[in-house]
Protein 1
Amino acid sequence: MKLPLSWLNDYLTLENTGVKEYCDAMTLSGSKVEGWSVEGSEVENVVFGKILTKVRHTNSDHMWITTVDVGGEVVQIVTGAQNIEVGQTVPVALPGAKLPGGITIKPGKLRGEPSNGMLCSHQELGFEDGVIPGSDPNGILIFQKEYPLGADVMEALGEKETVVEFEITPNRPDCLSVVGLARETAATFGVPFSIPPVEVKEQAGGDINDIAKVTVEAPDLCPRYSCRLVKNIRMAPSPEWMQKRLRAAGVRPISNIVDITNYVMLEYGQPMHAFDLDFLEGREIVVRRAKNGEEIVTLDGQPHTLDDSMLMICDGKKPVCVAGVMGGANSEIKDTTKAVLFECANFLRGSVRRTARKLGLRTESSSRYEKGLDPNMVITALNRACQLVEELGAGEVVHGIIDVDNSDHTPTVIPFRPERIRAFIGADIDDGFMVSALRSLEIGVDVDKMQVLPPSFRMDIECEADVAEEVARLYGYDRIPSAPLGGAGAMGGLNREQRLTAKIKSSLVGQGYYEIQTYSFTSPKTLDMINAGEELRKTVNILNPLGEDASIMRTTAVTGMLEVLARNYNHKNKNARLFETATVYIPKSLPVTELPEEKKVLTLGAYGAADFFDLKGAAEELMDSLGVEGVTFSAAAPNPIYHPGKSAEIYINKKKVGIIGEVHPDVAENYGLDEAYLGELDMAALLSNAGGDVRYKPLSRFPAVSRDIAMLVDDAVTVADIEAVIRRAGGSLLEELELFDVYKGSQIPEGKKSVAMSAVYRGEKTLTDDEINKIMNKTVRSLEHVLGATLR
Amino acid sequence: MKEQLEKIRSDAAAALAAAADAEAVEAARVAFLGKKGQLTAVLRGMGALSPEQRPVVGQLANEIRAFVEGEIEKKKAELAEKARAKKLASGVIDVTMPGRRNKAGRLHPLNKVLEEVTSIFTGMGFTVAEGPEVELDYYNFEALNTPADHPARDSQDTFYITDKILLRTQTSSVQIRAMEKSKPPIRMIAPGRVFRSDTADATHSPVFHQIEGLVVDKGITMANLKGTLETFVKALYGPDARIRLRPHHFPFTEPSAEVDASCFVCGGKGCGVCKGEGWIEILGAGMVHPNVLRAGGIDPEEYSGFAFGLGLERLVMIKYGVDDLRLFYENDLRFLKQF
């Protein structure tokens, strides 16, 4: 809402308040200022000056040397003007002044005499002839009355306007008006506020009820519909003062009648509409729902097809206006209009909102109706429009008002409990302050019945908390003290899952992985890019997505990971090790009828200096740091996302919890990646299998014995197979077992590989050579027997 | 004999002075003090001396032995000192060469700051709650005093799944769930993802994060809200940080406020970061609306509460001077490595 500050002067007097000070105070009392600007003339730094002396220039036969008092300072100015006399008040462009056409005034010398400024004619200030009373078209502008010397001429003449832009919250449609903001201003600065009386002379004679007729067929959507009639219309542009105010408020002037409706809307916040009476068939108004398929062309020239949820203002036959949104072209005010029917109505806010959305029309009118307007305002606004018609000589008002009022007039009554308000706010605000603050906002307080009686235009005040806010904001939020929360010893902190999640992240970060965040929705095409199977394609879909590429909720987080890997690869980042704790959305039924399951998954991704075993190591270290036990890996079943020979499924106690591996070359190609690695782990499984408290094991006092075991086995034999055999043979004496070499190549027969393991044994006493040899023999025999190994 | 002994003294001194290493010192020791050494030989000849001369010569011989032994120790120490100096000199490294690091990764900047914020609130006795991101209209709007056709819904362009299911537009949706789950006293924060149908640009993202706060108990006041937020801001920006509350409107709080923190760069004098205002808007807050308490099954006559909601991205952008929201979701390592 743009407020031209001079407009406030119609309702109150605010003295000695700078713009900045005004804006800050309004913001802190609840009317948030977005910004302010000075609009209007481009003329700057032209002030009122009084001519003190005037002598002929010694080197010129037509120039004069003058001294001029410009308010506390006297300057010498040389002029060629002939119409000036000592004692006159004139406009003085001081050095640095700006005049129309990009002219800047500089100090200088005229034929050897210093001249510090310029006396101006009205043309030089950008005025047309005859605009300023008594001005001479051939000379300097001589003012006919006194002005404070040194004051800005353009401001004093009303050519400049300070416009403050407010951000009005949706609960305060009453502040989408000059009157509303004036009321807030008065309450904020503690000055009196009054609205000048609205009186209509009704010069036309006759009675509206004999000429026009209104029927409201849909009172549920239209609580109040009122009309007044104006005859003998004299279409013309509205006067300059009205045009200036409209322009400053951001509304384009059109004609006196249309401007009046807009002026009243800005002033009171009540939208109005003006119909050309002669184009209303049957001279009647019917307020009804549209018929399905009915059509209207709105004022902006756009055709619309209507449906029966939309409220229409119709004449005897057809729709002439989309109620509360925009008028129809068919009954528009024209230069030839002779009689005008002014509409001032109250429409149900939800209805206007839905209709405006459906038709894609947002107007100054609809945005006010959508927030809910006061049904009691319609008569005042209607009369104010007619008063302006009379003031402007735009026509003659017919006697009478048609007022179809089905609105609810039950006043809101809220108990006034100052003690509770104090306790709620936590500040020692006395009763007297509360009462006067509320009354300054025109909120009634009955101190006998202890009741708060909000006026009908404050529909946002419904309960005690609302009253508390009015009191608190005028008291000043900054005066409310700060108090710590009581109830010391409240148990806060993270729960087990949250602590473990933090541990997972810190383990990965410690291992050189960077955390990423990707969007929760994605394109269905990404599922094609990973050759996804049926399960992943059962998605939760967005009805109104930003676009196809953000239209489904992800069922897998690997697509996001792959995109990020690819982006980094394209940006030539050499190495990448990334992780994300992502949510995926699994529908419980399709079509979706209930909230989907939101599953947390941990994804890992890497390329560059990384291979399968780096990723596997990260997963192992991660699970180890969580104290997860019973972790095994086995070659993965065929999966379109992963390389068939370089991927493994991860099991905890034989339950599958994830998968890691090289990205399938087809998928890598789809993303423009070379060799990349991915992992997916089920967060819930990690969290539920995380170990509890650690128990210390006593340190053995007996020495350990280590033995290396090197063997040749078939390629098909896995390290896990070998480990299992060695562990079984070593029993409880085997303390550690580590792979230290796998070799294939020269001196190794085709189809075989050399595997070397290092084992550490320790007993409850010092192991003898005999005992060690016994274990080793058993181990070797098992390896030969079970795996067909040849010891080297 | 005296002359012989004096010669040994000077010969030994010369030999040791000339000795360049441990072997030469040992050779000198053997030559002068050894079983077959010169001093031993002189002592063997003592028998030929007169009884008067014997003690005199003996004393001199002992003196010379002590002298030679002393010289040997001195030389050994000198040599050891030299050797150590040489070793140290040869062990000089270029300390400006890069260190060998086990490079750790980094948390995402959003989560790094979230952890900081979370620990400030858990320190004040808050728990951390979560709620679904795909949410019922009821929890996101309806129960938060924002019925259908409420104009406040306009400012939050919503992604819908069905007419009753949506992507939550605010973490405030967790408020009612928290009240349904546990009775007062409630003191929780709920960080999480929210969604609005805004095209991504430098200052908008269809996916972003909020941190909701909710406190409900007997006798909770607006002064408590101010105190809590002040503690938070001081913990985040330092002890000199201040807050300013401006009246505002949210459907689910009454009274409501927008909260500014004094600019942490200029301290409130006005600078580029705060656009000359001295204040930076960081969150929205207010006293929980009685209708919201009722929807959560809590009697507003008995209990009161406050709630606040803070935009994580905005907080992080201000903190690190990040000027484009999209960077958070592009995950370029050159960006991620900076935090």
Protein 2
Amino acid sequence: MDTIEQQKLKALRPKIIIGMASCGIGAGAKNVLKSIEHELAKQKLEADIVHTGCIGMCAQEVLVDVLFPGRTRVTYGNVKTSIVPEIIGEHVGKGEAVKKLVMAQMYLDDKTASPYDGLPFFDDIEMNKGQKKYILRNCGYIDPDSIHEYIARGGYTALEKVLKTMTPKAVIDEISKSGLRGRGGGGFPTGEKWASCAKYSADEKFVLCNADEGDPGAFMDRSLMEGDPHAVLEGMIIAGYAINATSGYIYVRAEYPLAVKRLKHTIEEAKKLGFLGKNILNRGYDLEILIKEGAGAFVCGESTSLQNSIEGKRGMPRTRPPQSVEAGLWDKPTCLNNVETFANVPFILNKGADWFAKIGTEKSKGTKIFSLTGKIKNAGLVEVPMGTTIRQIVFDMGGGIPKRKKFKAVQIGGPSGGCLPESLLDSPIDYESLLGAGAMMGSGSFVVVDDTTCMVELARFFMNFCALESCGKCPPCRIGTTLMLEILTRITTGGGEEKDLEVLEQMSDEMKVMSLCGLGQSAPNPVKSTLRYFRDEYMAHIRDKTCPTATCVALHKYEVTPEKCTKCQACIRNCPVKAISGSTTEVAFIDKSKCIKCNLCYDKCNFLAIK
Amino acid sequence: MNTKQNESVQNKTLNLAKIEEVLEKYKNARGALIPVLQAVQGHYGYLPEPVVDLIAERLRISAHEIVGTATFYAQFHLKPRGQHIIKVCCGTACHVKGAKKVLQKISETLEVSTGMTTKDNVFTLEEVACLGACSLAPVMMMDEDLHGKLAPDTVGAVIKEIKGAGISS
């Protein structure tokens, strides 16, 4: 750690904070970083460069913050290397924010910094209004590789309080009282799970963190692990103490190399300062935590499959009972929770269960993080109190649908969830309401689709995913997903029959009842919900052999709808075989004898004029 | 074992020293198989048969069980792959934003179909379920680097840039 003199000296130097989570890096943060270093040297300026995690405004990446001594922290969005010299020269050099490029400013914890005139504050911008950043409070704010920055924001105080003043039972009672429910999808009460695991005694007990975020479209667990890994670890150590675990594993999926790297570093740092390992904080409790990297199997997000995978076997589920709390990993009592659930734990213990239970609805307490993606203006992470409506998330925080397209549906919960239509925009987000509507909380993927997305094709996409990821152990799932995929593919390629819909519905119910694990039980959900809300689209494919959104290429007729054509000629310019004629005064016409059905004209048309 | 040790792998002689090290590290560890396979794959890019036999012997697991486990997971490969792996995300967000077309374009640019390796053994092109960078959709991962906001007409340039960065050597 730096000496006090060194810290004082550093406080007098400007600080440049760059978002280096996976999404930042994907948007080009490494090049921006290089250019910042280069520019500092060139302009002979001194500044500290630190990394941070994801602040949730992924659509605005690369994000660079500048902290000039005595002033507020200023965030620049969409930073390209070309604007770096100006930011460095004006802001780092002279302390003047480059206002035209600024996204927002924010106070530091002590609120003494002087703000810049005319710049919006971070919490006031469109996307952040209505959000409650409790669990994400450190993401994008602190350097995730620095345990000291985490401690400076109240980190590990919950662990200290727990070990020094609370019995394991008191911890479980507090978590039960808070009403916290599993954030991985099912929504099982966390306190109840811990209590049932605590009652079994054995020579070995395990606490597991499920970080196998396989749900396509979900990335909040990745952001937490990359942006605030110590919070996850602290929650896990507290859980370990509560159930008297002897060791723990964090099972991270292989596609998250950065999260693995950060977690490894986090564990080392925590060990050095005595928060993990032997005799934690001198209170006599020992806990060892190891990282297990997944090897690419969606089904491993299921608890018993995950345990088999840790044991080095094929990641297949097993029948229950016995439940994992009684005989899980290596047949020992095991408590498994999701990343976000663990990240909630220190927060609850610091603020108190009563305080926490005031947030949210009657049965769903606290906040939930969603990864807002798809056809949405402000893609990124949002943390909202339970009970927030879908409309608030899509239109207030998400900023609505880009390119003047129309909202059609939101897909919540990934391959296990469902598609909810416009009529349900005002329904609140909580475990029960979502289930009732035919979706589920899932892990929190929130994919918005506009009127150019074909719902039958989307259902087919998810069924294809489930068919590929089905482990093959139980026939209802192995055969069911394959057969349903076959029917859906037939419908999207023009071979559908009316009786197919009945068959799909019947198979959905059968798979739900008969499949061994959650994958098979929930795999029909996307089909069921689209059949429920978008049946007319299925009928159009089957009866009229047309795809209303013209997504299903096999059903395209390549004809121009004259009323929709604006004579912009984008299709004409892009046609590789010059099959389209037209001009500024004449609507486009496709010569079918020349057309090779490459679909480029459809892609390039912004007005859906080609069918 | 000796004859197998001299077997040529990707123009390199199969050197088992590194694997011995890994096996030593996991000698008494429980659930060692997957981390060992990950280390082997990290080293060779795939799981060579002689190494599978060696693991079987040391970890006291039958070779068929190892292959059974390896083939269950998408990460493991029993055949050699390219020096660089391009994973194109076809998750939900990427799907609705046109990942399929990006994949097709890459496939055309590199003249390789999905799941295959280019003739010069430089690139392997794969399709993956989700890379968790949905806000930058469509995305792809080149080894461990993410590239986001791809489009069919710009992805060619991204590939050229990667090739130009000397990575193709």
